[in-house]
Design goal:
By secondary structure, the protein is mostly helical. Helices cover 75% and strands 0% of the residues. The radius of gyration is 27 Å and the shape is rod-shaped. The model has no long low-confidence stretch (mean pLDDT 84).
Length: 104
């Protein structure tokens, strides 16, 4: 963004006029709101990505647990299918990217 002083360079006397002064205050307020929105958006995406990573880690833990249970009790637990797990993981990540507009 351009600085207010750069915009009025050579015409600083215009900055003293009341309507221009009101406009400058309004612009500064909008700049502050834009900055706050950008911070919120960054924090929100950070939270979303943390959640996705946590979900992936939980799924990996469940896979390892199911694998161990299958080795111990093959008649009670099905052997995990890695191909379907990878496909589901990819679908999950792509869907979260689409829904949350993460830009992956």
């Amino acid at each position: 963004m351009r600085d207010i002083r750069q915009i009025f360079k050579g015409n600083e006397h215009l900055m003293d006029l009341e309507p221009v002064d009101n406009l400058i205050d309004y612009c500064r307020d909008l700049e502050g709101q834009l900055f706050e929105k950008n911070l919120e958006e960054t924090n929100n995406k950070e939270q979303i990505l943390k959640s996705i990573i946590q979900d992936v880690l939980t799924s990996c833990d469940e896979l390892e647990e199911n694998k161990l249970l299958n080795e111990r009790y093959p008649e009670l637990y099905k052997k995990p299918d890695p191909d379907s797990l990878i496909k589901n993981l990819k679908d999950y990540i792509l869907e979260m990217n689409r829904v949350n507009k993460l830009g992956l």
